[in-house]
Amino acid sequence: MIIGEYRSTIGNKKRVSLPKKFRDELGEEIILTRGYEDSLILVNKQMWEKVAKEVINGSFINKNIRDTSRFLVGGAVEIETDKLGRFVIPQSLFEHAQLNRDVVFIGLINWIEVWDRDKWEEKLKYLQQRGEDIANEISKMSSKVDG
Questions:
Q1: Better-predicted residue by pLDDT, 76 or 74
Q2: Residue among 52, 51, 27, 40 nearest 120 (CA)
Q3: pLDDT band at 22 (very low <50, low <70, confident <90, very high)
Q4: Which pTM value belongs to this model?
Q5: Distances (CA, A) of 36 to 59, 76, 141, 145
Q6: Contact between 5 and 104 (Cβ < 8 Å)
């Protein structure tokens, strides 16, 4: 299961090491793409195929599907890791996530988010302050689906 929070440092040439636990979970074929809220998303090929299927099955007439395709698929790259799990973050994705030297990998069961450490700490404070409100909103959404 892809869970946990790991910190890392970006080195020369925008190279960073994917935590071993996540490497083991994702496997060899890994996709890196833009994420929401100034993050990046890492998924394995199997999860990527699910995302691609949803995009492919959607109508290109639908603006939201086109925009989602542009955002997620348009920026996606297959990454290769070396023996130490290091990979290079392409410039466009580096800029999208506004990355600096320190990054945080967040495992979210089906995918991994990569955040600039300072941005992640801001987001975490927001989540801590709004946790109860967010839980109530989710509960309301679940009630509507169930009822």
A1: 76
A2: 40
A3: very high
A4: 0.87
A5: 22, 13, 21, 25
A6: yes
Domains of the chain plus CATH, in order, are: 2-117 (3.40.1550.20)
**Residue 123 token pair:** 């987001």
DSSP string, 63-104: HHHHHHIIIIITT-EEE---TT-EEEPPHHHHHHTT--SEEE
Q: Please tell me whether residue 32 adopts helix, strand or coil conformation.
A: strand
* Neighbour tally for 66: CB within 10 Å: 14
- Give residue-wise pLDDT tens across range 122-143: 999 998 888 777 777 777 776 6
Q: Which long-range contacts (CB under 8 A, 24 or more apart) does 122-125 make?
A: 123/37
Contact 27, 45 (CB under 8 A): yes
